[in-house]
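anyone seen this seq b4? input:
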Amino acid sequence: MDDASRELVRRPVMSPDGPVALRFSVLGPVRAWRGDEALASGSPQQRGLLAALLLRGGRTATAAELIDALWGDEPPSQGLAAIRTYASRLRKILGPDVLVSESGGYAIRGLPDGALDLSTAQDLAERAERARANGEPGRASDLLRRALALWDGEALPGVPGPYAENQRVRLEEWRLQLIEFCLDMELEQGHHAEAVSELTALTVAHPMREQLRELLMLALYRSGRQAEALAVYADTRRLLADELGLNPRPALAELQRRILQADPALAQPSAPQPESAVVPVRPAQLPATVPDFTGRAAYVEELGEALASANGQVMVVSALSGIAGVGKTTLAVHVAHQARREFPDGQLYVDLQGLPATRTEPETVLGSFLRALGTPESAIPDSLEDRAALYRSVLDGRRVLVLLDNAYDAAQVRPLLPGTEGCAALITARGHLGDLAGARLVDVGVLSPEEALELFTRIVGHERVAGERAAALDVVAACGFLPLAIRIAASRLAVRRTWTVSVLAAKLADERRRLDELQAGDLAVKATFELAHGQLEPAQARAFRLLGLADGPDISLPAAAAVLGLPQEDTEELLESLVDTSLVESPAPGRYRYHDLLRLYARARAERDEQLPGERAAALSRLLDFYLATAAGVYALERPGDRLIEHLEPTAGDGLVFTARAEALDWLFGEARALLSAAHQAVDTGELRKAADLLLATRDLAESGSEFKRYESAVTALRGAAAAAGDERTEGRTRTALAHLHSLTGRFGEADHEAREAVRLGGSAGDSWTMGDALNSRGVIAVHQNRHEDAEAHLSRAVAYFRALGDRPGEAGVLCNLSRVHLATGRTASAIALARQGIEIHDAMGSSVRGANGRYALALALTRSGELDLASNCLHEALGVFREGRQKLWEGMSLFRLAEVDLAARRPAQAAVNAETALITLGGIGGEWHRANVLTVLGHALSELGQTRRAVVSWSEALDVYERLHAPEAEAVRTLLLDGHPDRTYSLA
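predicted toks r here
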C-alpha cells in the first residue's frame, strides 16, 4: 500500500464530539484499529461476523443471515448463541454506538468516509470513472493505482464460511477489473512499453482473462513488437480451444485483424482534441496583419482572454518580450485584430523605435494619440504630465486598445497607458519589462518545428515543399525556428524558381555563412542582432561574445564564471542583464542558453573583434579546466581509491566540490551534454589531453547509456585528432575508451582492435594506467569470444600493472573479470573466490558502484554453482546500487541475470517479468547484442509458460541480431528454432 492510499484509510475518523479514530480493513486480513493501536478481532468466526457486518455498508443483518454466512448448510446447534457471543465481544472492543442491535440482528453504524478500506477503494474507483469521462486518463490511472494499493494480499484470508468465500471471489474479480481499467488508462497515455512486463505476468497468473490478453496485444503492438502481439493471439486461441473448446471473443479477433492490417488508429492512443478558440476579428487603426500568420495558438488564446476581460475591469496590460526576429509585433498585431470587437471605441498604435538613439519620446506619442482621439491641436498641452493627464481623461468611459510596439523600457511606456477600466494595452519589447507594475509578462519563444514548416510552406508554396519535406525541415532548423529567419529564407527561395529546397538547405548548412545567407531586401537577421548588440555595455558585450564560444545546449552559472574568469556573483549579474535584453535565455535558475542564430552571431563577433583572439582560446581553456577538475572530483567520490585521478592532466583552475554522492551525480548527468560538447570542441582548440582525460573521468555517462552516442562521437573525434597530432598518450587513452564502448555493445572484434592498439601506444608512451586498463579490456573481450587462455594471460598482466601502480580498485576489477575466466573454464570454486576477493577490496575502499560490479560477477559464479538464493541476493543488492547511481545499462543487465536465476530456479513467470523489465530498461542502451541475450532468455521463460508462439518470436528476433553480428550465440538459438522449440529446461551457458 502506498503512502497516499494508507493516509486515506489511516487518518482519524472524526465525529462531532472529536476524533473516534476507528478504522477497518477487509481488502486483506480483517483488522480494526483505534488510532495507531491494533484491536484484537478475535477468532476466525468472530472476524467473519465483523467482515459480514462491514461489507453490508450499515445495513442490518439478521441472526439467521449471519449464521448462514458463517456456517452455510451445516450450522452448529449453538449457532445463535455463538453469534450473540461474538457480537458481545466485538461491541466491547468497538463500542456500543458502533455495533448496534436492532430487529433481531446487528449492524455497524456511524462510520464516516475513510473508515473502511473497501469504501475508500470504491470512492477512488468512482472518481477514476469520472476522470476518464472527462478525458483525464492520467488522473484516472493515478486514482486506480491508489485504489489497488489498498489491497494487502488476498481479501478476507482465513475467514470461514460461504459468505466470506463468495466475497473473496467477488473482490478478487473487482480487483482484476480495476487492474484492467488502470492498464487501459495507462495505454491511453502512451505507457505501452512499461505495461508489457506487468501484463505478461498477469496473463500468466490469469490465462483465461481475454481482456488482459487484449491489452497485452495492444501494448506489444504499440511497442513495435507486432509479431509478439500476433503470437499472443495465437497462444490465446490455442489455449481456449484446448481448455474450453471456445474461440476468442469478437473484440480479441477484431484486434488481431486490425494488427494484421496495421490499422493506423491502433498505433497511438486516442486523445481528446481541444476545441479551437474562436476570437472575433475586426481590423481598425492597427497595421495590417500578415496573411500567412502561423501557429502561436497558445499565445493567441492567452492574450485574447486577457483582452476580453478588460471590459468592466481595471486596465489590462500585456507586455510581450523575446529575441529580435521572434515575431513579437506580428503576434501582437494579430491578437489585436482578433480582439477588436472588445474595443469598439478604437485601437491606437505606435512604433516606439526602441533604441537609445532613436526611441520616440512619450510626449510626442501622446500628442499623436490625442489628435487621433479627436482632441483639437489647440487643446493639447505642452508638458508630458499635462498631456498624459488629458489622455487619460479623454479615454475615460471609452473602451480602447493601445498597441505600443518596440518599447525601449518601462519609463517610456508608463505615460502611454490608459488609466481607466475597459481599456487595455499590448506592448512589445526586446527586453523584459519586469518593472512595469501590474503587467502580464509574456516571453515569446520560437515556433515549433510544425509551425515553422507550415510558415515556410505558406510562403514558398505547397508544391515545392511537398517533395522535399526533409530538406524543408533542415531549412527551418537551420533558421533556429525563428520567424524572421524563416521568412527571409522562404522569400529568397520563392523568387528563385531554379533553386530547390535542397539547394537552400545546403547553403544554410554552412554555419560560418548562415547569417550572410539570411538576408533578403531590407530584411536581415544579422542587422537585427547588430541593433541589439549595439545597446550593450562593454562588459555585457564581452560576456555575450565569449559565452557564445562554448558548445553545448546551455551553460551553468559556475561554468559561465569559468569562461569569463569572473566571480559567480559578477557573472550572474552580467548574464541576468543579458536575459533582460533577450539576447540570452534562462531556461532554469542558474542555467543560460543562446538561440542558435544568436550563438552564431556571438561567435562571429568574437572572431572579428581584434581584442579577443587570445582571449577566445583562454576562455575555452578555462571552461575545459573547470569541467575536468569537477568531473575528477565526482569520479573520486564515486570510486574511492581509484588511482586514475592521479594520472589525469593537471588543471589551472578549480572545479566544484561535492560531499554528497547524489549531488555529485546530479551535476554529472545534468551537465552531460555540456561536458561531452566541451571534449569534442577540444578537437578544434587542440587541448586533446585534457579532453581525453575528461572523457575517462566521465565514463559513467557511457555506462549509464543516456549519452552513449555523444560519448562515442567525442572519443572517436579525439582519437583521430590525437593520431594526426602524433600524441601517443592521448591516442592510447581514447582507444582504451573506445574498446570499452565497443565491448559494452557486443562489437568485440572492433573492441579488441582498439584495445590492442591502446596497449601498443600505452607502452610506447610509458602510460602504465592505459596499459593496465587496455589489458583488462582485452581480457574481458577474450572472455566473450571464448578465448579463455588469452583472456587469462591479458588479465594477469593487467593485475600486475595495477598492483605496480598501487591501484587497489583497478586490481579488484581485474580479479572480478578473472572470475569470469575461471567460471568459463569450469573452475567454479575459484571463480567464486576471486569475485569475493575483488568485492572485499571494493568494500574496503568504500566503492559501492565497483562493489556492485563485483557482486554482479559473483552472482554469475553462484548461479553456476547452484547457489541461486545467494546469486539472487547479490544481483538485487547490485541492482539497488546501479539504480541509485543511474547506471541504466548495468541495471538492465542485472535484471537480465535475475531472469536467468529465475529460470534456473524454475520460476518462469518471474523470469519473464524480469526479462521484459530488462528490455524496457535497456531500451536502445548497450547495443543489439545485449538485447538479443535478453530476448533469448525471455523466449525460454515464455516457452516454459506454454506461450510457445511468443517464445518463437523472441528467439527469431534474437537470431536476426546474432547473425548480423556474426555472434557465436546464433548457433544455439538456431538449434532451438530448428528443434521445434521443445519444452526444455533452460541451461546457463
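Residues 162-188 form the longest helix (27 residues). The two ends are 39 Å apart (CA to CA). kinda curious what u guys think
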